[in-house]
Amino acid sequence: MDIQSLLDDIAGSVTPHIGQGEVAGYIPELGAVSAGQFGISVATGDGEVFSSGDSDVPFSIQSISKVFALALVLAGDGDRIWKRVFREPSGNPFNSLVQLEHEDGIPRNPFINAGALVVTDRLLSIADNPHTAVRDLLRTESGNGSIGIDAVVAESEARNNNRNASLAHFLASCGNLDNPVEDVLDAYVSQCSLAMSCADLAVASSFLARNGLAADGSAVLSPAQTKRINAVMLTCGTYDAAGEFAYRVGLPGKSGVGGGIIAVVPNNCTICVWSPGLGRSGNSVAGVAALDEFTTRTGWSIF
Ligand code: GLU
Q1: Structure-model confidence comparison of residues 275 and 94, the more confident one
Q2: Which of 3, 193, 230, 233 has a 20 to 30 Å separation from 79 between CA atoms?
Q3: At what angle do helices 3-13 and 285-298 cross, to 10 degrees?
Q4: How many domains does the chain have?
Q5: What is the CATH number of the domain that holds 116?
Q6: Is residue 222, in this structure, part of any structural domain at all?
Q7: Using one digit for the tens of pLDDT, what is the confidence trace for 1-17?
Q8: pLDDT on residue 161
């Protein structure tokens, strides 16, 4: 498989999709990002990285951070989190309030905002350095010690965070937050505002394709935990379009409203795509098209 030629081909063939959709304007600073960008990187299990397009441009990872927060909580605390968060697709927008009220403050899954707030709350309770835990994991797993928060995005998000504040207060009213709402929101915004490139994110995600093992052979997660996190990514990782993503791409994946998507080919490689234009459900239009083409041409899907 000539992965480099394939990625170059894909970067060409998705051109008509680049700029389609809407950039996430509800976080003003994300709305200012130029939609005409596209990057793709593949990190193989044996440590090679192949890239094409704007793969070295840092972008706001947003909800992709939820995978790494969940990994830290599962690694540090085992299955306890599942008493406070379900693991079913929501079929609702990622920031919906309605379902949370109907279901008594237990979020449908850890990848919608309400679920991620509960995971973040647990991380605040168990991590040694809770405010930098996700960043530190990403630095370690990518090998890039300069990864950090985009302060301008963080501020923009913090100033426009009423919806997440509503979710957090409702969770607290149901007794499903242990830490002060402001602390949870602060940590959540910090992790969403981390900026990374496709190349760094593909490498940082590699443990998900290696049964939980980091590049140096140490365990980030057990094989069973890795199976479960990949399963939740498949069923819940791309908002209320997870069915469509499974149909088109056929891999566990997690998207963010910054336009990035990570996808995992178990025992083979991880892929990160980025293009800021989002479809109706919040997934990158060109990113999904690129992953669709990648798995269709390689046959590297879990189905
Ligand atoms: N920080 C974003 C929010 O809370 C994350 C949403 C996303 O990427 O899905 O709205």
Answers
A1: 275
A2: 193
A3: 140
A4: 1
A5: 3.40.710.10
A6: yes
A7: 899 999 999 999 999 99
A8: 96
Per residue in 199-227, pLDDT (tens digit) is: 999 999 999 999 999 988 999 999 999 99
Assess if residue 303 is contained within a domain: no
Distance in Å, CA 66 to ligand 1 centroid: 9
pLDDT of residue 94: 87
Query: How far is it between the farthest Cα atoms of the chain?
Result: 54
Q: What is the pLDDT of residue 215?
A: 86
CA dihedral 159, 160, 164, 165 (to 10 degrees): 50
- State both tokens at 199: 């190349």
The burial of 104, by beta-carbon neighbours within 10 Å (0-12 exposed, 13-18 middle, 19 or more buried), is given as: exposed
Domain extent, residue 187, equals: 3-298
Query: CA gyration radius for the chain?
Result: 17
Instruction: Check pocket membership of 256 for ligand 1, CB cut-off 6 A.
Output: yes
Cα of 249 from ligand 1 centre, angstroms: 22
Q: How many CB atoms lie within 10 A of CB 218?
A: 10
pLDDT of residue 281: 92
Residue 84 lies in a domain: yes
Residue of 174, 188, 218 lying closest to 121 (CA atoms)? 188
- In the chain, the percentage of residues whose pLDDT exceeds 90 is 93
Model-level pTM? Answer: 0.97
**pLDDT tens track for 223-280:** 999 999 999 999 999 999 999 999 999 999 999 999 999 999 999 999 999 999 999 9
The answer to whether residue 211 is domain-embedded is yes
Question: Is the distance from the beta carbon of residue 257 to the nearest atom of ligand 1 less than 6 Å?
Answer: yes
